[in-house]
UniProtKB/TrEMBL annotation:
Pfam families: zf-MYND (PF01753). This is MYND-type domain-containing protein. PROSITE patterns: ZF_MYND_2 (PS50865). The keyword Translocase does not apply. Signal peptide: none annotated. GO terms for molecular function: DNA-binding transcription factor activity, RNA polymerase II-specific; zinc ion binding. GO terms for cellular component: nucleus.
Length: 236
């Protein structure tokens, strides 16, 4: 199956991983311990100790200063996202317009305006509810709500449409000493999702989770291919 399939949602779902640990934002991003303290500069990520903070520093410093000095929010409908450009050596923080829409059945959803970043093309997507490196789930056990997921979008045909390899993803994961778990071609955006197709600001704890996702995606025996909540493939 193609990483960039827009019709099949590739997802790390905690219920398939056994005894997972629920840890909210204010737990240590590296080991899930609580209490933890926010970074003194950006106040957007938490660590339980100097040791954990030092371990994450090569990655965190990529965006810590940028987060502190970010541009003002353009409107209440703009949400903070991560942008991984193709031809740069690090990601950027951007504001993405999330336009509220009404479905035919009367329900509501939000449309991400991301063509300026990904191009005028079909988009592939991936959701992360769980970090397999830290065994951390983002929503409480038994919760029926998607309170917190990390939602990635990319060019659906990025591997075959001539898109260049994404240098910023490789440079970022290598700060943790690991290449990406699978090749990524073309630009990529990551944003925080609440519910289905509703979005909120990503924080720098989410940045760490996203990096771990990129390291492990399509690597290891517990990667799952999921469509409409049904497991289609468990990788060997």
């Amino acid at each position: 199956m193609d990483v960039y399939s827009g019709k099949i949602i590739r997802s790390y779902l905690p219920e398939y991983y056994g005894n997972t640990v629920y840890a909210p934002d204010d737990c240590c991003v590296m080991c899930n311990k609580h209490p933890a303290s926010a970074c003194n500069q950006c106040r957007s990520i938490w660590y339980c100790s100097k040791s954990c903070q030092t371990k994450d520093w090569p990655t965190h410093k990529i965006l810590c200063k940028a987060f502190t000095n970010e541009e003002p929010r353009p409107s209440p409908n703009h949400k903070r996202a991560l942008f991984f450009p193709v031809d740069e050596t690090k990601p950027r923080l951007i504001w993405v317009l999330c336009e509220r829409k009404k479905a035919e059945d009367g329900g509501e959803w939000e449309k991400l305006h991301i063509k300026d970043y990904l191009g005028d093309t079909s988009f592939g997507r991936a959701r992360m509810h769980y970090n397999p490196i830290t065994n951390r789930r983002f929503t409480p056990p038994g919760s029926m709500r998607n309170d917190h997921a990390i939602f990635l979008q990319c060019r659906e045909a990025g591997l075959v449409d001539g898109s260049s390899p994404n240098q910023s993803i490789t440079a970022t994961t290598m700060k943790s000493g690991e290449p990406p778990g699978t090749p990524w071609c073309g630009p990529v955006i990551a944003i925080r999702e609440r519910g289905v197709d509703f979005y909120s600001d990503i924080n720098l704890g989410d940045f760490r989770q996203t990096v771990d996702f990129l390291i492990t995606y399509y690597r290891g025996e517990k990667n799952l291919l999921v469509s409409n909540g049904k497991v289609l493939l468990r990788a060997p």
